[in-house]
Structures are given as structure tokens and as C-alpha cells.
Amino acid sequence: MTTFLYSNPICLEHLTPPGHPERPDRLRALEAVFEHENFAPLKRLEAPMAAEDSVLLAHPERFLARVKAAIPEEGRARIDEDTSVSPRSLEAALISVGGALAAVDAVMDGETDNAFVMTRPPGHHAERDKAMGFCLFNQAAIAARHAQKKYAVERVAIVDWDVHHGNGTQDIFYDDKSVVYCSTHQMPLYPGTGALKETGQGNIFNAPLSANDGSDHFRDAFKSRILPALENARPDLIIISAGFDAHHRDPLAEINLVADDFDWATGKLMDIASRYNGNRVVSLLEGGYDLLGLAESAGSHVLRLMRG
Ligand SMILES: [Zn+2]
Q1: Among 54, 101, 264, 296, which is disulfide-ready with 259 (CB 3.0 to 4.6 Å)?
Q2: CA–CA distance from 131 to each of 151, 169, 249 (Å)?
Q3: Which residue, among 181, 191, 164, has the nearest Cα to 255 in the 3D structure?
Q4: Alpha helices, DSSP H, located in the chain
Q5: What dihedral do alpha carbons 164, 169, 175, 176 form, nearest 10°?
């Protein structure tokens, strides 16, 4: 397998308040992991900044204008209780989008089998018309629409194993059967959505887990709900909303996964991709707030992407 790794140092300059879990050190911890010789075969690329127009693939113009207006000239400003912006946050968010679009292009054009986009802010809580939960723009959703628009891809699957439900991605595709959204997440937990009965047009597959469920429950949810949905959808492209906050060390949740679970889940998705679309997998960093847990988990995930 060939794997592209996208990053950009401007993502370190999206600043959140002291003590905020979604902090620049997350990317520094990942950079340190990918320096190990195991990762030497990765092709490293700078995530480009997306044009503002690409945000409109998943969000209305008034939303983009509101986010831009919220960016302060100095210091920090709050969009909501959890979501802060600093002077370079718009650039960082457009890089999160741009990295996702570049990864889709590289995978669709056959330049690489798969790609991991290591940027922040994350995106899966950003609804069509609302930035929230540390997220400004929903890069997974934008990337899916980009693949459909530019490559005439019919069926895109977004698989979200972040421990929080991706309410934003669900919101954007709730009435759009062309994108299948599958999520494992802890419930009850922020943001409160993600029940089994939220099914959209038959294209939303939620697999809620309970606090203290561990690896077995997570893998059972994958085997019983997520993988059958993907088999049925036969996706032309798989986008992973790769949050690593279901790791047992994470301070925000209690699902208690280990790094090996992310290796396993990655392998299962690659197996689907090998059968239906020639290995096309684009993985986008979402959450993961314990630096060691994040590093171990993302390391296992990317090693699997590289090795198949
Ligand atoms: Zn999360």
C-alpha cells in the first residue's frame, strides 16, 4: 500500500484557551510518532489551504460569513462554550478542508492507495449551519461532496469512530441517500445525538455504545451494524472520521479501547475498500485528547493503512 500523510504547521496556530483538550500539542505528539522509522515509507505532503468556496459544498454562505466574522484580530474569541477561534483559525480550518480535498484527489487519481490527514481543527460536529464542539467546517462532509462533484462518485461512505457522535455529518447528509454515514460513539455523551432510531433516508447507521463498553462491544458494533451497512452500500470511496478519543486513556469518554482496536477497525474498512473500490480510503483526524493514547492509536491506524 502507498500512504500519503498530510500536515501543515499553520494548524499549530489555531489556539484554544489554556487547559482546552483540543490543543496544538495533539499535532506535536503525532509528529513525534511519525518520526519513527516504521513510518519512513509514508509520503509526506503539506496540506494546502482550500478556497473558501469549497466550504459551500456542505455549508451555506451565511455560515461561512459568520465563522469569518468571529475570527479575532488578536487573542481569542468564542463561538460557543467549547469552540474558540484565534487570528489564524480560519486558515487552519481551511487547511483541514484543503488537506481532505487533496487526499480525495490523490486517492481518486490513483496517486496513492490511501491517506491520513493530520490537521486541526476537527470537523465532524460542524452542522450545515452551526460550528460547534471544537469544529469549524465539516471537512469529512465537504470531502464527500467534492468526490461526488469532481469524480462523479456515486456512493461515498463516511465511517466515524470518534467517541462522540458526528452530529454535524449526520445533519448534512440526513436527507441525502448518496452518502452513507456510520458511527460508533458513546451514548449518552456530547452532543446527545446518535440514537439507533436516527436513520435519515436509510443511509444513517448509528451504533451507540455505553460507558465502560470496551473492545468487544466496539468490535461487535462494527461487525453487526457498520460492516453490513458498508457491504450493502458498496462504497466507491471510504472516508474515515478518525477520532481516537475512545482510547482508554482519553479524559473525555469511557469506552476503553486499546490501540489494537484501531488497527483492527482500519483493517476491516480496508477490506471493504479492496473489494468495492480499489482500496480508496481517506482518513481525517478528528478527536483524541490524551497525547499518549492519541499517539499510540493513530500510530496503529496509520501503520495498518501502510501495510494493508
Ligand atoms: Zn470526539
Answers
A1: 296
A2: 28, 12, 27
A3: 164
A4: 25-33, 52-55, 61-70, 89-108, 139-151, 167-173, 215-221, 227-233, 259-276, 291-307
A5: -130
pLDDT digits (tens, 9 = 90+) for 171-190: 999 999 999 999 999 999 99
Positions marked catalytic: 125
Amino acid at 233: A
- In this prediction the pTM is 0.99
Q: How far is the CA of 118 from the centre of ligand 1 (A)?
A: 15
pLDDT tens digits for range 44-67:
999 999 999 999 999 999 999 999
Q: Residue 236, exposed/middle/buried by CB under 10 A (0-12, 13-18, 19+)?
A: buried
pLDDT tens figures, 126-155: 999 999 999 999 999 999 999 999 999 999
Distance 261 CA to ligand 1 centre (A): 16
Is residue 289 within 8 Å of 246, Cβ to Cβ? Answer: no
**SS3 at position 7:** strand
Q: Is 19 exposed, middle or buried (0-12, 13-18, 19+ CB in 10 A)?
A: exposed
Closest CA to 86 of 182, 17, 143, 150: 17
3-state secondary structure of 135: strand
Over residues 248-294, the pLDDT tens digits come to 999 999 999 999 999 999 999 999 999 999 999 999 999 999 999 99
Dist. CA 296–CA 308, nearest whole Å: 18
CB 156 within 8 A of CB 235: yes
Any idea how long the chain is?
Answer: 308
Residue 95 near residue 284 (C-beta atoms within 8 A): no
Q: Ligand 1 (ion): which residues have CB within 5 A?
A: 162, 164, 243, 245, 287
3-state secondary structure of 31: helix
Which run of H or E residues covers position 85? strand 84-85
How far apart are the C-alpha atoms of 26 and 47, rounded to whole Å? 17
